[in-house]
Amino acid sequence: MVAVATILFFIMGPILMIGLGLSIVLLVDALTVKGKTTNRAEASNTLTDYDFLLTVGAVLLIATWSYILYIVWGASGWMLIPWEMWGNLRPAPGTLDRQVNDFFNCGDNQFLPALVVLGFDVAIFIVRISHLRDRARRTWLPLAFAWINAVFLAASVLGLLLLRDVADLWLPQPRPQLDFGYHRTWPVIVFYILLAGLLFCSHWKIGVPKFWRRYLFLADA
User: Does residue 144 surpass a pLDDT of 70?
Assistant: First the structure.
């Protein structure tokens, strides 16, 4: 399991950095109009509609990615390390629950779920943006990703608040005062897995609405 964690760190880490670097490049590109056009009116339109919106999209994308990293990292501690603060209550050594808890409680392993989610999402962004050639799509994509990220963040917080105690609906009552374990956190784990899948699918399928192309005064490709 340690070897798997090491591989994930080495694979997802560079992908994450490339994606963030690409967003910064888009931001710099958005602020640079030199050489894009020699027509003053066209340059003004480009600055207003293309550069400004691309700048906003890149900034929002980086910001929402940062919050996703923080939210998933924080939720992972509650979901995957239920005995982190109560070591004396941990299951017996050698049990699956104890092994999983100790694995994610070792070093930076708690960061792995956030790194995997963000790494895959950044990889999707890299693939999508690398295949875009016209300005309308390149301008729309960071904004669309940021909007979907914001929905993911809201759903993450809401889901955690609503599902953290849902296991009490079927667990025998009354429960001990100190009741920790995956028997309580598995609904939230499943929820986050499904939510991350929806995030990836939404980013992979997101298109460019017609009104966006009309707003940027660009002909359909």
Answer: yes
